[in-house]
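Quick one:
INPUT:
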């Protein structure tokens, strides 16, 4: 994926660790949505994704016209943990990255 500028920070996704992935549908579908959650070496959590015109990444390109798009945002550790949990990330991965936030039942 390379380098991105997100909220004024240079993020090198090639050096970041991918924690979780969530995909809905297939590329080319208007509802297609693909999101990835990363953590950088400095401990910043980054959510990146792309999608079709009817996904959260859809954007207006003219009068009554929309196209697919992409985006990235920084999230805090608690938000990242919630995202990973919502995406049903493996428990071992959750413990590795968010163990300090998890409470044993």
């Amino acid at each position: 994926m390379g380098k991105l500028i997100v909220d004024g920070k240079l993020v090198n996704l090639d050096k970041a660790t991918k924690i979780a992935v969530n995909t809905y549908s297939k590329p080319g579908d208007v509802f297609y949505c693909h999101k990835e959650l990363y953590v950088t070496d400095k401990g910043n959590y980054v959510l990146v994704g792309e999608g079709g015109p009817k996904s959260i990444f859809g954007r207006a390109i003219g009068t009554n016209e929309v196209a697919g798009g992409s985006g990235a945002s920084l999230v805090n550790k608690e938000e990242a943990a919630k995202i990973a949990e919502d995406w049903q990330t493996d428990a071992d991965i959750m413990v590795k990255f968010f163990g300090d936030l998890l409470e044993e039942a």
